[in-house]
Amino acid sequence: MILWRVQHKKTGHGPYRHWMAEEAPELIHEMIQHHNRDPKCHPSPYNDGITEYADNMRCAFVSEADLREWFKGHLRDLANHGFVMAIVSVPYDNIRFGRIQAAYRDEVATVLHTVPLTKEAS
To answer: Which residue, 85, 83, 79, 72, is CA-closest to 31?
Structure first.
């Protein structure tokens, strides 16, 4: 199955990983504050229904539109700090689905390609 994910072009880490907070603390702080204002729209994986979430898992979305909605207002800043949209292939049985997002173990996924966050992938 194809999933869409925001990740750093050099490390593959998503924007919520702690290491990024040290590199761009203002960007991450503002985004987290914005997302925390409405936890129904931006729940943690567990609060989204992904109860089997672990540290070796990555979050993604089942559509590009869902990704863009989640990061709405932050895409340009993320792009300016080295983040891209990764189109990822994951075996269906290895995906845990939440209400809004999905999660998978990194070792079972293949990044098919990446595109700038400021461009449409589809």
So the answer is: 72
Which residues form the domain of 38?
A: 2-116
> How many structural domains compose the chain?
1
Query: In whole angstroms, what is the distance from residue 35 CA to residue 25 CA?
Result: 15
For residue 104, give every residue at least 6 positions away whose Cβ sits within 8 Å of its Cβ, in sequence order, or none: 3, 57, 58, 60, 88, 90, 94, 95, 96
Query: What residue type is 29 in one-letter code?
Result: H
Q: Which amino acid is at 95?
A: I
Indicate whether 121 belongs to any domain: no
Q: Whole-model pTM?
A: 0.87
Answer whether residue 18 shows pLDDT above 60. Answer: no
**Residue (of 12, 15, 10) closest to 26 by Cα position:** 15
33 pLDDT band (50/70/90 cuts)? confident
In a domain, 80, yes or no: yes
User: Is 122 a member of any domain?
Assistant: no
Say if 81 falls within a structural domain.
Answer: yes
